[in-house]
Amino acid sequence: MRYLPSNENDRAQMLDVIGVKSIDDLFEDVPKSARLKDLIDLPKHQSEQAIEQHMARLSAKSVSASSVPFFCGAGAYKHHIPATVDHLIQRSEFLTAYTPYQPEISQGTLQALFEFQTQVALLTGTEVANASMYDGSTACAEAVVMAKRVTRKSKAILAPGLHPHYAAATQTLASTLDISINEVTPQIGADAGVIDMITDETACVVVQSPNVFGEIVDLAPIAEKAHAHKALLIAVFTEPVALAAIKSPGEQGADIVVGEGQGLGVGLNYGGPHVGLFACRQKLVRQMPGRVCGETVDANGERGYVLTLSTREQHIRREKATSNICTNSGLCCLAFTIHMSLLGDAGLKRMATLNHEAACHMADIIDGIDGTEVLNDTFFNEFTVRLSRPAEEVVDALAEKNILGGVPFSRIAPDGDPSLLLVCTTEVVSDADMHAFGHALEEVLG
Amino acid sequence: MKTQGRPTSPVAANDAMQPKTVSGNKALKQATKLIFETGTPRRTGVDLPEPKGRASRLGDHAREGEIGLPGLSEPETMRHYVRLSQKNYAIDLGVYPLGSCTMKHNPRLNEKVARMPGFADVHPLQPISTVQGALELMHELSHWICTLTGMPAVALTPKAGAHGELCGMMAIRARLDADGQSQRRRVLVPESAHGTNPATAVQCGFTVDEIPASGDGRVNLDALKDKIKSDPDTVAGIMLTNPNTCGLFERDIIEIADLIHAAGGYFYCDGANFNALVGRVRPGDLGVDAMHLNLHKTFSTPHGGGGPGSGPTVLSDALKTHAPVPYVVQTDEGYDLVEHKDEVSFGRMCAFHGQMGMYSRALTYMMSHGSDGLKQATEDAVLNANYIQASLSDVMTPAFGGVCMHEALFDDRFLKDTGVETLDFAKAMIDEGYHPMTMYFPLVVHGAMLIEPTESESKGELDRFILSMRHLAEKAKAGEADMFKQAPVHAPMRRLDETQAARKPVLRWTPPVETAEAAE
Fold first, then answer.
1. Is the peptide bond before B326 cis (omega within 30 degrees of 0)?
2. Cβ of B369 and A1 within 8 Å?
């Protein structure tokens, strides 16, 4: 077996040093009834070539985003990732290192995390960020739990524009921790309504912008009302590129900002791994979940980085930890950071502008088709269309024509309006793709 | 080559000469400033077309002013991150014997497969008809996992080990609630458990009742019986790692499972150490109700400096109906996804289907090894750990007697009165060219040193490692504490001040004060 360096001779010598006769002697603590006598009923080892062939054939059974006109968003976004990113994250020293618990030989990972945290803080307009969560939805759930710790109150308000999957993940975690959450019915144009729901009992209000329908939400008045009632505003985003185009949640008064970082540096990966971003005010940092990297000096007085504030974490605090999270999205943070370093302010802003312009153009095309209505007043790179036929049927018909034409809203909200279609247009979509989509949509609806 | 006039042999080395360089570089160790100190917001390493100036639909929400993100050209980016990478230790560089973390070889075929477009470049909400290959891979992985564990079902979605623990404990809670047993909120957790276990139990709304260890490093069965007997109606279950964090198989595991079941509770097994059992023992034969697998440990998906991981969680018949959404089902036409929860599922754990990029790598690993190779890998991992234990037991102090499983646990008795502590010993290992073992864990042993070599190390590599460890143990006993206190001296940095980092946390770069004032 190509991955195992020992041969029979080595094994015999090692058994001899240990002082046992056979490998079975090392498993003597296993109860007899549980010792397997035969090989497990699965295929035996295979060559690299055989497996590569098998996997390539499986891969070919799916339609990849790059191979067709592609308009899906709703929490995962197709952007161009420079080749440099994937090369660098495959460096052995990054790829095959563990969590940087020994800082003297982990400065590469640690400095990159410090850069990552700074980039996330700048992008979200907040003071500090942690070293990542699993994804945007789990970051959102953890933020609600954190708000309970900070405010010592246990009522959370979720806005009607929050991605239903984020709401569901939050509901799952909150359900066991005596956090009560309002009944959320996803609705377009209704986020400002949360202002009237905030009371002195409110721990936090969770608002997504751009929301799941693509609308940009004015967070400032919500923050103001929340703060007047000693509640926290948790701002959520699913598309990090949007934050280069719209006012940052931090500058609008958000206390905690959480979201999905996949759009920068990380591919679609059929939903994972992605990278959860988590940022907040400095004064809340000791209640924050997850790892965090900080600056310090070494014994020579030289600047270096370490994991810090670990007294919040499970490996030190056990049942009193702020979260059970251990492994996070390390390598995806690195990809995010490298992509951001390549872009810089100028590149990221241009990328955001290209996304927005493409979406504006797509919205105009769709608006000109009979049987459609674009519902958004505002949007960044995705918007909601009401169709004259159920969106799921339309999307299936478009797929027959080799166009991945967006996400039916009912796919993520089973009780949601079946006529709504979420359409996303990023910089990877060409004008020709947009026109192909427009024509196909016309045919399907016609 | 012309050699005339060019000296071809060096003068004798004088180690006292350690010039402080103007550049701050030390040959291959390049000084690396932060991108914020070298990049500028106007520079970019990505060529993007000119915007066309089409209308804006941002309303009055447009972001104004600079974000402050520095940009680098492509060669500068490449150099910055390659330099950083050279300050990291990695499995591909040398032995990485972190106990409980399972730092085994990461085959590059897995990376290649994970990047195939049908797995890496598909959207989680594409029509089901367009993702049949991805779903088939998930179904195939489920089959391998269920067969290896002897369990009837697996929830693939959990995104890491601790997320898998959450999945299992949520399923237990849902089952208890469905059975009208909501008063069962007490979870028994051995004191040797990973920190994630008690943290998870609390995150699921349970209380933690700690079980002491017995003198042989295993669960104290009498203490466990007493804990159950004290109030059997409140027992929700037990969270037990097997092999445990001392590297020992819990001999009484079947009896423990029976006791918990008889009391009306469920058995959560922390599967972090399943790599000691694959192909030789199936958790399903031990009475387990739920167990997560760390694909990034047992099945070699890379740790990536802290993640991403993946924590598929196997579930017994009693728990499987409570599994989270989404999950894959096989139909007449191929594969389908169940995406919305019914009455009994405990709900959704994350935005999409979990870690596809880890499923493809892990399945590739499993198929590469096959039933025979997986069993051999397990045996080699256990053999290597025992070889290390046997080869060091005369100079270091094994925490418990007898054979171990996939990792060897030592305590710090051998360092008594030397002035050297476990931390110093670990730092001296860095100078020897090794990543230190897991230290100060498990908590049941004083100054713990937990060594997990994995099956990826050859006997030659183990012998060199053993030689270094023996050398260090002897140096410590010979009174050379100073050398240990100074260590590491050969690493890119000397020992870092963690106290200062925690006391005055600096968690991001901020512009130097002069610049900030000038800007105002």
1. yes
2. yes
